[in-house]
Amino acid sequence: MLLKPQAIWAASLPLFLGRRLLPSSSPPPSGRRLPFRPICKRRMSAQAEPRFAPLPTAQSEPDAGADGYQFRLVSYNILAQVYVKSAFFPHSPSASLKWKARSKAVLTELKSFNADLMCIQELDEYETFYRKNMESTGYSSIYVQRSGDKRDGCGIFYKPKSVELLQKEVIHYNDLVETCHLNDNVISAPSNNSSPSEESSGKEDNKKRGDPNDPRVRLKRDCVGLLAAFKLGDPCEHILIVANTHIYWDPEWIDVKLAQAKYLLSKVSEFEKIIANKFTCKPSVIIAGDFNSTPGDKVYNYLVSAGSESTDEALIKLRSLYAENGGEPEFTNCTPGFTGTLDYIFLSEGGSIKPTSLLRIPRGGSPDVEGGLPNFHHPSEHLPIGAGFQVLRASA
């Protein structure tokens, strides 16, 4: 079933993409397939300088701070090398999946954004590769590895010259297990609808964990997130809270994904109150990541407080950056088995920041995404999303 058509972007704002871990064969219910076209290119290409297209509303703002202080944030699921196997990505040139080529390509891409803050998902080889290489470019970082035997996690890279880290907190979604009771009702574990490789590994993982109908087992998916409060380098020293997360992948386990989304918002709301009280301020909030949810599903509607499919009110009111600036992307994950939007950047209502530009990414017909990702042009099956922001003048 195809995704509902999204709003058409203005000609000056080519569409955005992102990614998640849903490789090749049968797509989730709301995805679509790409035609398979073999790629003959033999080496990773040098990425052109990424362009942030100005938004039509980003002219001189009367409510902007005196110096019009601006910063840039990018969110990117870079595809952990531990998940890079030819069986998962048979459509990808084998040479483009090698660690030596991919690591250089990802690093080059991260540096090219020239972002002040980067929320990275599926980040592995953190200590052995990314941390020191990003430090040499002027970035500091915080990181949380997934629970259990998982080797990837979530990280936030930031420029100390632009922002100052004030406080951080880790989110372990396995903590949801402590909130459930033996008589809790959960949805019975359905058959999987992902690729054969992911389905087999998922089933094997479930066998190790125990009965998936037991909420104590079902909610233990080893997913994580990061919360961080930063003081911006503007004269007003505005405080920004950034949340980076990666929600569980299985399209059929909507109950688990929705539980994680609710837990995320509760943790963000708690953290926001702590920071507001500690620093006597009203911080702005940005929540970014791979949510493994398509526009209009229960998780998405809950996050944007739509209320049409959610009986609970979100503790923090959010709006989607892209939805309010031309419509959600056509897709952010691009493989022959699934093409759809899974990655988002959400902003808190009433914050003191305003988006001024959006990161340009290829459209569906672009030659560099033909045949699906990853390939020699894009080292991950997701593409990065991002924006430039301006700090607004504080209310009197």
Automatic annotation (TrEMBL):
Chain residue ranges for the region called Disordered: 188-216
Coiled coil: none
Every Endonuclease/exonuclease/phosphatase domain range: 74-353
Name of the featured protein: Endonuclease/exonuclease/phosphatase domain-containing protein
One Pfam family from the record: Exo_endo_phos
GO MF term list: catalytic activity; mRNA 3'-UTR binding
Composition bias, Low complexity: 190-199
InterPro entries: CCR4/nocturin_mRNA_transcr, Endo/exonu/phosph_ase_sf, Endo/exonuclease/phosphatase
Signal peptide residue numbers: none
Residue ranges, compositional bias (Basic and acidic residues): 200-216
